[in-house]
Amino acid sequence: MDLRNSPYVPGAGTRPVALAGRDDIIERFDVTLSRLEAGRADTAPLIMGARGSGKTVLLNEFGAMAKKRGWFVASEEVIPNTPLSSLIAVLAHEVLLEMSTRHRVAANVRRALGVLKAFTAVSALGVSLSIDVDAVRGTADTGLFSRDLRRLFTEIGEVAKEQSVGVVFSLDEIHTLESDELSDLNSAMHRTAQLGLPVVFIGAGLFPSWQQAGRIKQSPLRLSSYVARMETSFVRLKPLDSAASREAFTAPALSEGVDFSDAALDEAVQFCQGNSWLIQLMGAEVWEVSSGPTIALFDVQVASDRVRQKLNQWFFPRLTRGCTDKELEILALIANGSHHGIMNFDSVSDCANSLQLDGAWAVRYALTELAKRDLIELEYTDGPIYDNDGFGVRLSVPMMDDYFRTTGGIFGFSAVHHTNNEKSEPYSRPSELPGKSNVPRELVTPRPGAGRDGEGQLPAWRGRPGRTKEEPAAMRLRHRRRLPQR
Ligand SMILES: Nc1ncnc2c1ncn2[C@@H]1O[C@H](COP(=O)(O)OP(=O)(O)O)[C@@H](O)[C@H]1O
Ligand SMILES: [Mg+2]
Fold it and tell me: What is the DSSP pairing of strand 391-395 with strand 294-295?
């Protein structure tokens, strides 16, 4: 069919024709806006979910809903290594400037800008905002970020309330914030809620399984009360169920007068396993393959092959780029030991044994690192994992298990070498990948400069600034069998 008419939109944050399976969450946010407008306390849950589950799209939808009601909406994406204070200063500035244009520069907006100016001078060092009023000292400039943030939000909330409007602060990719920062944000939002002010913070990020992984064997008593309470204010976007997946396929097609045969729809739904992004990708491929107006099973089968090829040749290699050899080994072990992409463990030490890691600390560290980069998710747990708890680890994207089973992840590195025009390293020492495949060791060692997220060439296990010294030692790999020497 003509690509010009394709209603499928695989991408990041691209609004689908049908925002399937999210009615409850959208309805609940509508209630939040109504409650805040009526001066009743409410907060919005943080949206968490795996890559491609539809977080950004939902966040944008929330922003659009608020805008429709005349609220001020300021959105940003968290930039790794940028302090929250700077992001908040930018958001607050945007909102106050918009308020000042819409309502001319009323005295209270000028005051709030002055408070922000003082806040910026003390907390958000490094951002330069041109604020054309005198700083108002003594409100949000103590230097205690948590307290200053509360006061700043309260100040903005009071201005908004006087003008009978609300304010939405929206931050995407919040998983890159430190948990202290998240806790400060949460405490600020609870403060404005306690005061009945129309300010709401909406955020989206990867499911904080990395936080849970990080808490294996840690006492929950060490969590601040706000972090502990935040656990209840997450909405986790699960894969779309069968009905929602069907709608995500059929509604866009119908908008162009196209439908699916029953068998084709079953096959397409099963293939995508509820992953929103994959549904859009599959839709786009099948649109190209089919001559319509009814999409047949054969079309879906051909499109499946094309999607699988795209994932294997392009998506997974990029996803795993920057993995160390040990991380690839872990992922390959999970893939080989998994059923439908999930590997279950009876306890933390069972996990250490199966993944050939050196004890509970190494399990926590390895799973946290992999989950932070959205390569895995923890299953069956919404709380801390103790030594004897059973839990599961799921590869974060459908068909990643097949990719690792068939390639051991090495495809990724050859693709990286290829695209960067770098010479492949000669393979001198074969390594025994536990499980099935034998993979040349050098091939699974990240090439120089394959660091991730601006980490440059730091060996991944050697940690980032601020990590403790004991980590590299604790990450000593426990090879059960000696590598053959050449
Ligand atoms: N509820 C949904 N129904 C159908 N498609 C969706 C839905 N949510 C997201 N998508 C599609 O999935 C893809 C990824 O969405 P995005 O919001 O960027 O995900 P995330 O931010 O979680 O990575 C986009 O192509 C988007 O159009
Ligand atoms: Mg996103």
Answer: unpaired
pLDDT at position 186, please?
81
In this model, does residue 235 exceed pLDDT 60? yes
More confident of the two residues 380 and 291: 291
pLDDT of residue 15: 94
Shortest-distance ligand to the CA of residue 52: 1
Atom of ligand 1 nearest to the CA of 49: 22
What ligand 1 atom has the least distance to the C-alpha of 11?
A: 25
Rounded Cα gap, residues 126 and 65, in angstroms: 33
From the alpha carbon of 15, which atom of ligand 1 is closest?
A: 27
* Identity at 455, one-letter amino acid code: E
Any residues with CB less than 8 A from the CB of 281 and at least 6 apart, and which? Answer: 8, 10, 307, 310
Tell me if 52 CB under 6 Å of ligand 1. Answer: yes
Answer yes or no: is pLDDT of 423 > 50.
Answer: no
184, pLDDT greater than 70? yes
State if pTM tops 0.90: no
Residue 112 Cα to ligand 2 midpoint, Å, equals 31
**Ligand 1 atom, smallest distance to 16 CA:** 27
Which residue type sits at 148?
A: D
> In whole angstroms, how far apart are CA 190 and each of 118, 211, 227?
23, 21, 12
Max CA pair span of the chain: 78
Question: How far apart are the C-alpha atoms of 388 and 385, rounded to whole Å?
Answer: 8
Q: Which residue has the tokens 């499946």?
A: 304
For residue 51 and ligand 1, the question of a CB distance below 6 A is answered with yes
Three-state SS for 342? Answer: strand
The response to whether residue 56 sits with its C-beta less than 6 Å from ligand 1 reads: yes
User: Is the CB of 8 inside a 6 Å radius of any atom of ligand 1?
Assistant: no
Going along the chain from its start, the domains and CATH numbers come out as: 23-237 (3.40.50.300), 242-317 (1.10.8), 321-474 (1.10.10)
> Is the pLDDT assigned to residue 227 strictly greater than 60?
no
Q: Which helix (H) or strand (E) holds 205?
A: strand 199-205
Amino acid at residue number 342: I
Both tokens of 212, joined, read 């849970």
Q: Is 55 in the pocket of ligand 1 (CB under 6 A)?
A: yes
Ligand 1 center from residue 228 Cα (angstroms): 29
Question: In terms of residues, how long is the chain?
Answer: 486
What is the CA 433 to chain-centroid distance, rounded?
Answer: 29
Q: How far apart are CA 251 and CA 246, in angstroms?
A: 8
Does residue 248 line the site of ligand 1, with CB under 6 A?
Answer: yes
Mean pLDDT of 366-392: 77
Q: What is the DSSP letter of 236?
A: E
